[in-house]
Amino acid sequence: MQDSLAGALRVRRSDVRRQWEEMLRVEPVGTPLGNPDALAHLIDWTLDEIYGALAHPLVHQRVHARHSHSTPAASCQCGGNPLLRYFSAGSQAMREALILSQAQQPDLDPMERDASLTELNLVLAEISRREIEAFCSVCYLRNND
Predict the structure, then answer these.
(1) Is residue 86 within 8 Å of residue 76, measured between CB atoms?
(2) Whole-angstrom Cα distance, residue 65 to residue 121?
(3) How far apart are CA 87 and CA 76, in angstroms?
(4) Is the CA virtual torsion 79, 129, 139, 38 positive or negative?
(5) DSSP code of residue 27
(6) Torsion on CA atoms 43, 45, 51, 53, rounded to nearest 10
(7) pTM for the structure as a whole
(8) What is the pLDDT of residues 27-76, one digit of tens each?
């Protein structure tokens, strides 16, 4: 991702955080762990992870290598993992911020624009997969099958 786009995303951090939290509050809560007040505490940490991954080229290479072998998205057998909703909302907020940032750079090469979205999607997929699978690994429903 071009430094200008990564910088524009960092500038939008407070907007992303607010949008992410608002989206968490839209959908009904299925479990106490899915309470938006509980999940909102994770947003800053997750944004640090996302921005950190976008800022480090070595991370990009590892993420691209993993996804070039068609790594499946994280899944939850019971569907009760609150991080599914959490990362869905966060991904939407991050993509919106990237698109708005790209719109403010009319001279941006279309291939770079597309590559930036792909890179963001890969980073989001990797972080969400890692965290969702970690949560599912301690799920009593999964462990009682």
Answers:
(1) no
(2) 14
(3) 13
(4) negative
(5) S
(6) -120
(7) 0.83
(8) 788 777 888 988 999 999 999 999 999 988 655 555 555 555 444 456 76
